[in-house]
């Protein structure tokens, strides 16, 4: 990780103020994209009758009604960011701020969902959390964040579920390291395989479960979700032919690791930007671009473009016009880094608070959104940034 030794976490650079990269070598290079393929394998047709049947067996909920039913309150930014002009919020004190069973990962907003910047008449954010390192993993969940009034943020967690038949569903046991919201569809990174796809037109109300242990259809014929009162079902998926590994930086021929996913709304139709995080701490992460069609599904099984990044431990990425933004992290006390890159050129850098994850760009407000994951230091941060 490229570091600026004279700075500390307490004296961070403004994210919009960049420092020239130390080396002239290109940090983002284009590579052949034709070897990277994803197929949906009939998944949408397979899930459709299951979702349709369950639509008739559970109480339906609209996106707006779930947003209005927020049962947690966000707080103003609660720790120094060191970023001039930063806005955003902290999660509810106690549980969500300090919870070591659930970790926030991905972020996207209604500005990703539509060109108007709203969805169903609301400005909202979606944030993914994973529990795969918890003693009793419960899969992945999405925070539905009401951002109509930035001074009064409310939110509710919604569990992701996979319909396993026309009569029940189970948890979605993935890391959910990144998410991208396009139209009615929510793309969630599935680390080894590709993307899981969820549809915000299908939201189901479930029963209270004080034991927090029931999932799917119970013996009483009612539906449960570990005491989450709403669930969002999977409607499709895109997968590669082999499983990717995030252990070490691989050769370009190896299957991809889908650690995160961002969006590019500057293309004629939106496109997904997927990328890799490697535990060995070396560079060489690949980014792939996946074009979407008018129905917000993949336009082609083959990636539209592919790149190789020199930066280690990439946690999130997106693109806008000819600029790529990548976040990297080190640990819970060391500042993260935001790289601003163009293909074939050296990057410029600025600092982020420790533990940055996924990224989302709100073009109308010229603002980059990021979030941090470590317990006790979890914030959702809007950073002034003009990408043209």
UniProtKB/TrEMBL annotation:
This is Secreted protein. Residues 1-25 form the signal peptide. Keywords: Signal. It comes from the Bacteria.
């Amino acid at each position: 990780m490229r570091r600026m030794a004279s700075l500390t976490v307490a004296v961070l650079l403004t994210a919009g103020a960049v420092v020239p990269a130390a080396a002239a070598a290109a940090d983002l290079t284009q590579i052949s994209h034709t070897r990277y393929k994803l197929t949906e394998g009939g998944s949408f047709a397979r899930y459709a009758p299951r979702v349709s049947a369950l639509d008739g067996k559970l109480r339906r909920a609209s996106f707006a009604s779930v947003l209005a039913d927020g049962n947690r309150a966000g707080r103003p930014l609660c720790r120094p960011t060191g970023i001039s002009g930063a806005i955003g919020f902290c999660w509810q004190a106690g549980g969500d701020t300090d919870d070591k069973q659930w970790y926030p990962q991905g972020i996207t907003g209604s500005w990703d969902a539509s060109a108007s910047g709203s969805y169903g008449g609301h400005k909202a954010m979606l944030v993914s959390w994973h529990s795969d390192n918890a003693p009793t993993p419960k899969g992945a969940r999405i925070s539905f964040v009401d951002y109509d009034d930035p001074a009064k943020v409310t939110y509710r967690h919604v569990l992701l579920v996979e319909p396993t038949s026309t009569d029940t569903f189970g948890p979605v046991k993935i890391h959910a390291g990144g998410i991208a919201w396009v139209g009615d569809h929510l793309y969630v990174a599935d680390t080894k395989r590709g993307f899981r796809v969820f549809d915000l037109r299908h939201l189901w109300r479930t029963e209270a479960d004080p034991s927090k242990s029931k999932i799917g259809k119970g013996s009483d014929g009612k539906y449960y979700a570990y005491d989450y009162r709403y669930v969002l079902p999977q409607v499709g998926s895109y997968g590669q032919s082999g499983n990717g590994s995030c252990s070490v930086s691989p050769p370009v021929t190896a299957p991809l690791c889908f650690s995160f996913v961002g969006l590019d709304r500057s293309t004629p139709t939106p496109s997904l930007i997927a990328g890799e995080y490697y535990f060995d701490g070396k560079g060489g992460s690949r980014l792939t671009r996946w074009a979407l069609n008018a129905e917000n599904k993949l336009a082609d099984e083959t990636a539209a473009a592919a790149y190789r990044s020199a930066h280690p431990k990439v946690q999130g990425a997106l693109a806008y016009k000819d600029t790529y933004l990548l976040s990297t992290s080190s640990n819970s006390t060391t500042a993260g880094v935001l790289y601003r890159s163009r293909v074939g050129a050296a990057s410029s850098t600025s600092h982020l608070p420790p533990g940055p994850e996924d990224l989302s760009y709100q073009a109308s407000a010229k603002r980059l959104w990021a979030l941090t994951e470590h317990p006790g230091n979890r914030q959702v941060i809007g950073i002034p940034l003009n990408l043209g």
